[in-house]
Amino acid sequence: MGDLSTDTAVTGRDGRYAADISRDWEIWGPNGGYIASIALRAAGEHSRFDLPASIVGHFLGVADFAPVAISVETRRGAKRAEAMRVEISQRGKPIFDAMVWAVGDVSGLEHDATERPVRPDPDALPTVADRLAAMGEAPNMYHRFWSNFDERVPDEDWIDDWPNRAPGAPVAGGWYRYVPASTFDDPWVDACRSLLLVDTLGWPAVCRYHINEPYIAPSIDISCAFHRFDASEPWLYARASSPSGANGLIGCEGRVWSRRGELLAVGASQLLCRPAPAP
User: Fold this and answer.
1) 0.90 surpassed by pTM
2) 253, part of any domain
């Protein structure tokens, strides 16, 4: 298992940074949300402001589990906000490009017109590992990536016989608590909690609808807007849906709420279908 703060940390200064890609976040290679989180951390290291506002990024290549080079350039620096361009490369090959906004002490309009889906509290639910053990399955049997979470899926969203499931609505979600560390005082790390879930849960949502199709669909882009921060709460409720897929592309949307029901982040991603590798 990995540690979100440690594994997304960057070193360096003056727009030139470096990071190590940890194998603990492996899922078809390094998880896309994990790579985007490293870019977000680099922007946070570079910015003079304390709060991330948004990130929009393109996945340009698949990284190895090795060091990466990161460049950050301020493209617009205003009194209360800063726009930065972040580029991640490895051995001269582009991996991920992003634009990141950060903000300072800004006051303004406030509202939250969303409602978190009504689900049992995470403390009232069994862990996914417990559910799998009860079925005689090994925990984290599909990817080591999921060992970074205490994942709790409500009964109404859980599917016992996943290989023989019937097609359903392209929606997936549940409660997620990062382990071994679950909360982070740094808002840039706290934002990574939401960013990573928004990117990751799109494909599980797609797989609720498409059964045994010969494709995988990694993200080619990701966007995420950060609305609130809840550094004291370990549990997040994340939900993703896929409203449409066509021409080899699949669109996904994601939202993350706090345990108190406040909307923390909203995001979207585009997935590109590729032939699935042989088992």
Assistant:
1) yes
2) yes
